Amino acid sequence: MDTTRPSAGSVPRSSSGTGTAPAPLSSGPVGFRRSLVLWGLSCRAFWLSLWLFFVYLTLSGPLGLKLMPSAVRRVRSLADRQRALAAEWSGVEIPAAYPEIPASADQGRALRTKLVDKDNQIARDWRWVTLDPIVGGAISFGPLLLVLSGIWGLTTAVFGAQLSDSWDSIWYLFIPVDGVGTAILAGLLGAVQFPLAFFWAGPRAVRQHSRYLRAFLAPSDAELMAGRIEHLTATRSDAVDTQMAEIRRIERDLHDGAQARLVAMGMTLDAAEQLLESNPDAVRALLVEARQSSNKALAELRDLVRGIHPPVLADRGLGDAVRSLAMISQLRTEVEVDLPARPEPPVESAAYFAVSEILANAAKHSGAERCWIDIRHEAGMLRITVTDNGRGGADITAGTGLRGIERRLATFDGVLAVSSPLNGPTMVTMELPCALSSPKTTSS
Amino acid sequence: MRIVLAEDHFLLRDGLSRLLGAFGHEVVAAVDNGPELQRQLTEQEPDIAIVDVRLPPGFSDEGLRAAVAARQQQPGLPVLLLSQYVEPLYARELLSTGSSGVGYVLKERVSNGAEFVATIDRVASGGTAMDPEVVSKLVTGKNRDEPMNSLTEREREVLECLAQGRSNAGIAEALFITEKAVAKHIGNIFPKLGLPPSDTDNRRVLAVLAYLDR
C-alpha cells in the first residue's frame, strides 16, 4: 500500500475542538488492562530514551548522524501508537505536525537541525520520550501499584503476626502490624484496594494518561496555524501554476487550431472571389475546401471546450459526466453514484478531470479489462474510488500523472491514495471536503 | 411536412426556417425556450420536431428533456436533436424512448443543406440518424469489447454507416463498394453482434443500439 500522507501542513482541521469535550472513561477491568498496556509502553519509552541518549551524545560525529533517521522513526512510531491509543480509548485526538524531511543522503543533518528547533514535532517527541518513563509511567503504574499493595495487605494479614516477630517490625501502609487486630485491619484495607484498582483507578489512569499525552505531544495552536499557512501557500502557488499552464494551453490550441483554420478559410474564400468570373469550377472546389476548414475549426473548438468544461458536466453534474466517460472508455466500466445533490462547481470539475485522467491511465497502462467507479458523499467528504482489474504496480512516486492529480486535488484540501499491489487490482481513492450546494436538477 | 423548431440563436433559427421553407416544408412554430417547446409540441402535433439540446431558461439540456418528455407522451413523435456537441449519454437517453424516428446530429451539419434536409426526411419517416461523431466515439472507445472486436475493419465502417441511418445503397456509395458487398457485410455483422435473424429493418436499428447501449 502506497499511501500519500497529507504533508506537514495538512493537519487535521478539528484539532482545537477536542480539548473541551469530557473524555469518556473505559469500563472497569478493561481500564485496568489498558493501564497495564500503557505502562508497558512507558517501559519501551524508557529503553528508547536510553538509546536516544546515546544517539544524542554521538550526534556531533558521523555515527550519530547515521543513527539519527532510524531513531527519529522509532520515536515517531511509539508516539503514533500512543496517539492512536489515546484516540481509541479516551477519544482524545492529538494532532501531529511532522515536518517533511526529503529522503536524501544528508537526512541525519536535516533532522539534527529540527531537534534544536523547540517548536517542532520531532523535538517535542524526543522531550516526551525522555519524560514518559517518569510521568507516563507513574500515571499508568498507579492501578498496578494498588493491586500490589493490596496483595501485600493480604499477605500481612495472614503472615503478619509471625513475620513481625522475625523481621523486628513490619508495616502495612500506616499500620504497624504487630498482632491479630492490626493484621485483620491490614487485610481489610488490602482487600478494599482490589476493587479500587479495577473499578476506580484503572479507568481514571487511562483518561489521565491521554490528557498528559496531549499536553506533551500536541503542537501549539500557533504551530498548527503555521503548518496550515505553509500548506495553503504551497497549494495556492500550485493552483496558480496549473491555471497559468491551462491558459497557455488554451491560447496555443486556439492559435494553432481554430484561428489558423479561420485564416486559411479567409484566404480560400478570397481566392474563390478572384476566380468567380474566370473559373467557376475552381470556385466550387475552393468552397468545398472552405467548408471543410470550417468543420475542422468547429471540431477543434468542440474538443477545446470539452477540455475546459465538458457540457455534460455543466448540464448534468458529476454523476452523469462520469457515466458518459465510462461509455466511451475502452474499459468496460461500471459507475455507482450516490450524491443527493451537486457538489460545488469547482470541486465537481476537479473531481471530473481527476477521474477522467485516472480512467485514461488505467486504459493505457494497467492492461485491465474492467473498471469500477464509485462516487459518494459521506460526512462532508466527496469520496471517489476507481478500481481496475489490471496488473497493478502503479506507483504514485514514479510517474507525473498521479502526482499531478494529487497536486490539483490539494488545492481543495483533497487527498489521493493509491493501493496497487503487483498483479492488481489497482484502487485509487480520492477524498475532497465539500458541501453539496444546489439541489439535483436531473429529471430522469 | 409540418415542423416545430426550437433554437435559441436568432440567426440560426431564422436561417433554418428559411432553409426548410426553401425545401417545401412548413415551420408551424419556431420557439426559443424549453417550456414553450413543450407546449407547442402537444398543441401542434408536428410531423417532426427539430430541437436544440441547450435551450433557455437553464441553458443546460432543456431541449433533450422536452424531447424525451414529448416522446413519452406521444410515442413515435419524430425528433431530431441538434447540438454543438454530441454526447453519447444523451444519444442513449434519446434512444431509450424508442429507436425509430430519432436523430441526433451536430449543428454544423446544417451547413450542407441538401444532406440536412435528407436527414430530416429520414427521421420523419421513422428512420434513425446518429451523427458520425457519436458513432465513431463509441467505436473507438469500445474497441476492447469482444463483440466489436470480432468485426473486421470494413464491417466496422459499414456499421458506422448503418448507425448514421444510411440505406444499403447509401452505404455502398459512401464506402465505394457494391450494394451486394454491403448486404454481405451486414449479414456478417448481425450474428457477430448476437442479433437473431428477424426482419432486417429492425435488426439494423438493433445493431446501432448494440453500440450505444453498453
From TrEMBL, chain A:
<feature type="transmembrane region" description="Helical">
    <location>
        <begin position="36"/>
        <end position="59"/>
    </location>
</feature>
<keyword id="KW-0902">Two-component regulatory system</keyword>
<feature type="transmembrane region" description="Helical">
    <location>
        <begin position="134"/>
        <end position="159"/>
    </location>
</feature>
<dbReference type="InterPro" id="IPR011712">
    <property type="entry name" value="Sig_transdc_His_kin_sub3_dim/P"/>
</dbReference>
<keyword id="KW-0067">ATP-binding</keyword>
<dbReference type="Pfam" id="PF13796">
    <property type="entry name" value="Sensor"/>
</dbReference>
<keyword id="KW-0418">Kinase</keyword>
<keyword id="KW-0812">Transmembrane</keyword>
<keyword id="KW-0597">Phosphoprotein</keyword>
<dbReference type="InterPro" id="IPR025828">
    <property type="entry name" value="Put_sensor_dom"/>
</dbReference>
<dbReference type="Pfam" id="PF02518">
    <property type="entry name" value="HATPase_c"/>
</dbReference>
<feature type="domain" description="Putative sensor">
    <location>
        <begin position="41"/>
        <end position="217"/>
    </location>
</feature>
<keyword id="KW-1133">Transmembrane helix</keyword>
<keyword id="KW-0808">Transferase</keyword>
<feature type="domain" description="Signal transduction histidine kinase subgroup 3 dimerisation and phosphoacceptor">
    <location>
        <begin position="248"/>
        <end position="313"/>
    </location>
</feature>
<dbReference type="Pfam" id="PF07730">
    <property type="entry name" value="HisKA_3"/>
</dbReference>
<dbReference type="InterPro" id="IPR003594">
    <property type="entry name" value="HATPase_dom"/>
</dbReference>
<protein>
    <recommendedName>
        <fullName>histidine kinase</fullName>
        <ecNumber>2.7.13.3</ecNumber>
    </recommendedName>
</protein>
<keyword id="KW-0472">Membrane</keyword>
<feature type="transmembrane region" description="Helical">
    <location>
        <begin position="179"/>
        <end position="201"/>
    </location>
</feature>
<dbReference type="GO" id="GO:0000155">
    <property type="term" value="F:phosphorelay sensor kinase activity"/>
</dbReference>
<dbReference type="GO" id="GO:0005524">
    <property type="term" value="F:ATP binding"/>
</dbReference>
Automatic annotation (TrEMBL), chain B:
<keyword id="KW-0804">Transcription</keyword>
<dbReference type="InterPro" id="IPR000792">
    <property type="entry name" value="Tscrpt_reg_LuxR_C"/>
</dbReference>
<dbReference type="InterPro" id="IPR058245">
    <property type="entry name" value="NreC/VraR/RcsB-like_REC"/>
</dbReference>
<keyword id="KW-0238">DNA-binding</keyword>
<feature type="domain" description="HTH luxR-type">
    <location>
        <begin position="144"/>
        <end position="214"/>
    </location>
</feature>
<feature type="modified residue" description="4-aspartylphosphate">
    <location>
        <position position="52"/>
    </location>
</feature>
<dbReference type="InterPro" id="IPR016032">
    <property type="entry name" value="Sig_transdc_resp-reg_C-effctor"/>
</dbReference>
<dbReference type="GO" id="GO:0006355">
    <property type="term" value="P:regulation of DNA-templated transcription"/>
</dbReference>
<dbReference type="InterPro" id="IPR039420">
    <property type="entry name" value="WalR-like"/>
</dbReference>
<protein>
    <submittedName>
        <fullName>DNA-binding response regulator</fullName>
    </submittedName>
</protein>
<dbReference type="Pfam" id="PF00072">
    <property type="entry name" value="Response_reg"/>
</dbReference>
<dbReference type="Pfam" id="PF00196">
    <property type="entry name" value="GerE"/>
</dbReference>
<dbReference type="GO" id="GO:0003677">
    <property type="term" value="F:DNA binding"/>
</dbReference>
<keyword id="KW-0805">Transcription regulation</keyword>
<keyword id="KW-0597">Phosphoprotein</keyword>
<dbReference type="InterPro" id="IPR001789">
    <property type="entry name" value="Sig_transdc_resp-reg_receiver"/>
</dbReference>
<feature type="domain" description="Response regulatory">
    <location>
        <begin position="2"/>
        <end position="122"/>
    </location>
</feature>
<dbReference type="InterPro" id="IPR011006">
    <property type="entry name" value="CheY-like_superfamily"/>
</dbReference>
<dbReference type="GO" id="GO:0000160">
    <property type="term" value="P:phosphorelay signal transduction system"/>
</dbReference>
